[in-house]
């Protein structure tokens, strides 16, 4: 039976995807005490990148914002893989977003709002977090966006 967080996802018309398999030598998420740290999550859907290219060139800021939502959804799947249940999330502590940006693109915060807003929509006050939004030259597989999250779990 799905918990409250997954029920909220369903209410929003979303489903938790399968965990994206690692592209190299790392784990999608690790737990240390009451914290879960995800690796950077790309906007993979059905095992493929939804879109490639630089934001502000081949990819619009609005498209990238939606891709950041997908990254956050993939991050929640990674959290569940080590926490067992998303209802164990006490709060999202930190979100770090990377935006592969055209040289003159400066809208990284608005792009990463896609991830932040999804976490807020799904987790309410538990989704409020600290954040960094960083512009970079290129991301793995020519992804436009990558997001990692850190969450605190309710103590066992």
Quick structural summary:
It contains 3 helices and 7 strands, in the order αββββαβαββ. It has 156 residues and is α+β, with helices and mostly antiparallel strands.
Shape: globular
Radius of gyration: 15 Å
Helix-strand makeup class: alpha+beta
Helix amount: 25-40%
Give the strand order of the largest sheet, numbering strands 1, 2, ... along the chain: 1-2-7-5-6
- Low-confidence parts, pLDDT < 50 over ≥5 residues? none
* pLDDT averaged residue by residue: 96
Strand content is 25-35%
Number of helices: 3
Q: Distance between the terminal alpha carbons, to the nearest Å?
A: 20 Å
Q: Report on the biggest sheet.
A: 5 strands, mixed
Topology order in helix (H) and strand (E) letters: HEEEEHEHEE
Beta-strand segment tally: 7
Features:
156 residues; 3 helices; alpha+beta; five-stranded mixed beta sheet
How does this model look, in words?
- With 156 residues, the chain is α+β, with helices and mostly antiparallel strands.
- It has three helices and seven strands, in the order H-E-E-E-E-H-E-H-E-E.
- It has helices spanning 4-11, 61-83, 108-123, and strands at residues 29-32, 35-38, 44-45, 48-49, 89-100, 130-136, 145-153.
- The strands form two sheets. It has a five-stranded mixed sheet with strand order 1-2-7-5-6, covered by helices on one side. The protein has a two-stranded antiparallel ribbon with strand order 3-4.
- Helix 2 (61-83) crosses helix 3 (108-123).
- The chain is globular.
- The model has no long low-confidence stretch (mean pLDDT 96).
